[in-house]
Amino acid sequence: MRTAHILVLTIVAALGLAPIAPQDQKKLAVGDATPALDGLDFVQGSIEDLSASGTKVLVVEFWATWCGPCLRSIPHINELYQSYKDQGLVVVGVSDENRSKVEPFVKKRGSEMSYPVAVDGEKKVNEAFMTASGQKGIPCAFVTTVQSGQTTGKVVYIGHPMAPEFETAVRLSLTGRYDPVLTKKGQPLIDAARRAIDAKNYKDGYKRFDEVIALDPAIFAPIAIEKYEVMLNVENNDAGAKAYAAELLKGLVSIGDADALRDLAVELSSDPANKSYDYDLAMQAAEAMLKVAGKNDPNALSTIAGVEFARGDFAKAVDAQKKAYRIASPSRKPKFKATLEAYELALKKGVKVKVPTDERMSGGSSAGSVETVPAKP
């Protein structure tokens, strides 16, 4: 064995090559170039040439039909895809299972899983993303940004698709405002704040939250909303929560963040986790969103409609949603129409009715459970 090892080293030296050590194997981390998606067998949809398709953000999500947490994340990913695909978001779900298992599963899901889905039969993509980045559990999402004219992107997020940081990475990357380095810097402060809150040390928790928000109010707007939720629902500080929400609104108006203003409007008017609502402040946030986004923005109009519905003015809700429906993109019209029909039914009956859930309008600071399972069953 020793002789053979010496012979190999001799040949490598003669060829002018460096020995390949385990530590030299390529790794993948945030900030690196996006690996190629070679060898995928698409069972639904396809991935166009990224340099020519107007793609701004590409999400590669690894999942499996047998994975419970993966199934719970599908609706959230689908809502994001439907909401932002017209703005340059591309999503591909990747499974290393057999096509015979994945294809019928996707067909059964129908519109609930509308984004492209592919089978990674040779596991090349799995190795390039999951193995290279050291990820062992699914679901796992990779968010990458794509610059105009480029054929590849840069990884800006690796993690669970139900974590609030995932949606933040997607939404802010679409407008070129996501900073993975800053996000990493803020995470220890976020963790410390949450530990303090769990220990009922609210003063220290709020201080940590404020330190994070000060790093970048746009990137950490979800943390600001989380602070409001803690004040209102955990500390039971109604007066403090109301004052903080008003302060938060002024800050979001000053930076002109339409998405964050929408989130605040929903939070204040209809988040089911909240014990009380502030409809007047919610409407101010919705109207500020409309001013920032423009009078012909369907999402802003729909946000106003949602606040009107929440406070019981069904006629105004119908009027605003009709405007949103008329100018919505063809791919989103069904969602806007379903909401409009719910508002019309409420107006007819004179009472609130169930409204179709839209992940973008659900409020709150967290998408849901971040449970994972080992990548292999």
| CATH architecture group name of the largest domain | 3-Layer(aba) Sandwich
The percent of residues in helical segments reads 40-55%
Largest sheet: 6 strands, mixed
Oligomer: single chain
CATH superfamily of the largest domain: Glutaredoxin
Q: What best-fitting shape do the alpha-carbon axes yield?
A: globular
From the helix content, strand content and strand pairing, which structural class follows?
A: alpha/beta
| SSE sequence, one letter per element | HEEHEHEHEEEHHHHHHHHHHE
Q: How many structural domains are formed by the residues?
A: 2
What features would you describe in this structure?
Helix content is 53%, strand content 10%. The protein has helices at 2-14, 68-84, 99-109, 124-133, 164-174, 180-198, 202-215, 221-234, 238-255, 258-270, 279-293, 298-310, 314-327, 333-349; strands spanning 41-44, 57-62, 89-95, 117-119, 137-138, 140-145, 154-159, 373-374. The longest helix is centred in the middle third of the chain and has 19 residues, at 180-198. The protein folds into two domains: 24-178, Glutaredoxin; 216-361, Serine Threonine Protein Phosphatase 5, Tetratricopeptide repeat, CATH 1.25.40. The chain is of the alpha/beta class and 377 residues long.
